[in-house]
Amino acid sequence: MPKRENFLLLLKIVGKRIKAERESKEISISELAQKTGINKKYMEKIEEGEAYGLSTTKFFKIAEVLNVSPYKLVE
């Protein structure tokens, strides 16, 4: 599989895991966006796996707010 396809697949997987963690903790997407300082529309793109410019800083902030290891979101 080409690198670009691998990257896009990883974004989808990470987005689904972020959403699953958020929902399991009964946190709304608006609340997660507010606590991380990320725009709600962009947070929706992250969860949909369409945030192609997701920075490591934002990724680690999401993991911190969800109280989950970043590794768990990408394993």
Task: Give structural notes.
The protein is mainly α. It has a single domain (3-74), classed as 434 Repressor (Amino-terminal Domain). It has helices spanning 3-24, 29-36, 40-48, 56-66, 70-74. Helix 1 (3-24) crosses helix 3 and helix 2 (29-36) crosses helix 3. The longest helix has 22 residues, at 3-24.
Distance between the termini: 18 Å
Q: What is the residue-averaged pLDDT?
A: 94
Silhouette: globular
SSE succession: HHHHH
User: How much β-strand is present in the residues?
Assistant: under 5%
Helix content: over 70%
Give unreliable regions as ranges.
none
By secondary-structure content and strand pairing, the structural class works out as mainly alpha
Roughly how many Å is the radius of gyration?
12 Å
CATH architecture: Orthogonal Bundle
* CATH homologous superfamily grouping: lambda repressor-like DNA-binding domains
What is the total number of structural domains? 1
Major beta sheet summary? none
CATH class assignment: Mainly Alpha
CATH-defined fold name: 434 Repressor (Amino-terminal Domain)
